[in-house]
Amino acid sequence: MIAIEVRELRKSYGDVQALRGIDVSIAATGQIIGLLGPNGAGKTTFVEILEGLRPATSGTVSVLGIDPAHAPAALRARLGVQLQSTAFMEDLTVTETLQVYASLYPGASSGRRIARTLDRVDLTGKAKAMVRGLSGGQRQRLALAMAMLHDPDLYILDEPTSGLDPIARRQIHDILIALKSDGKTILLSSHYLDEIEALADRVLILAAGEIVADGTPLQLLSRAAGASTLWLEVSGVIDPATLVPQATFEGRDGSLFRYRTPDPTAAIVGLADSLRTSGARLDDLRLRRPSLEDVYLQLVGPQMAQKDLEVVQS
User: How far apart are CA 62 and CA 283, in angstroms?
Assistant: First the structure.
């Protein structure tokens, strides 16, 4: 089954093209799809069209086999949505909030369903607490609980960890991993590239209204230009410039020798040979490969520069 099928999707606001012919197909196979892009790239417009909140200018859109523009009610019964910022009724308890929201969906308002959902988002201990007293992380987990109540097939989550501390972010991550294990498909929009690199099975990068990359994190990392950086701390008399034949010695960072290499595996093998023949001892080794952030900047930078140029010229 296909969760999302988009063909030649375009959206214009007057002379401004927010989306410029997007083609995407996402299978409903229990996966997390990361959606990345800078502000103004068209992510919000794209997501709102999928949710049936905004009409497309042209193109075709199918979400769970439904056209969002023509059957939004049928779609919402199978779709779980969490916005970046959710407006709560502050004087209700956590349980009352879920009861009000669950009343919109047949079968979702049972006490057992609500209790189970609270447990899944680790808010059972806050069931009788007033919403106004919740922390930022607890509010985001409550918003996610609202999206989960009716057991949807597809989740569209817009920056669910924005502004949260590392512990609260990890709690959200654990919930998303559990949903994926249940076979749910999740479209996750985020500005945290490390989050997408850790969670996503597939990554879409949107820039200037176009998809400039689509693939697994490893596939995108293979496109990263530039070399890896290797830091070494070595005891014993040895010339650092000849220590790693397959890498270029760049200098020192405190007690560490710093090297650049396009092939870190070969560099480490060469280092082992040098240590064995010289008698020196390796005390520390640190490696930084090109990251998803490097790929993102390489792909998005030229697109956004071109967009800025078009604005100036117009």
Answer: 56
pTM of the predicted protein model: 0.81
Per-residue pLDDT at 138: 93
Domain boundary among 168, 186, 221: 221
Question: DSSP readout, 24-73?
Answer: EEEE-SS-EEEEE--TTSSHHHHHHHHTTSS--SEEEEEETTB-TTT-HH
Q: Are 206 and 45 in contact (CB under 8 A)?
A: no
In terms of domains, do 12 and 72 share one? yes
Rounded to the nearest 10 degrees, how much is the dihedral formed by the CA atoms of 28, 116, 68, 20?
A: -60
Residues 6+ apart with CB under 8 A from 16: none
Which of 221, 247, 265 terminates a domain? The answer is 221
On whether both 6 and 71 belong to a single domain, the answer is yes
Q: Which residue has the higher pLDDT, 10 or 237?
A: 10
Instruction: Tell whether 232 and 215 lie within a shared domain.
Output: no
Distance CA 268, CA 247 (A): 9
Side chain identity at 40, as an amino acid letter? Answer: G
- Our count of domains for the chain comes to 2
Residues 62 and 177 in one domain: yes
- Cα dihedral sign, 267-269-270-275: positive
* Model pLDDT, residue 135: 92
Of 203, 232, 208, 211, the C-alpha closest to 293 is 203
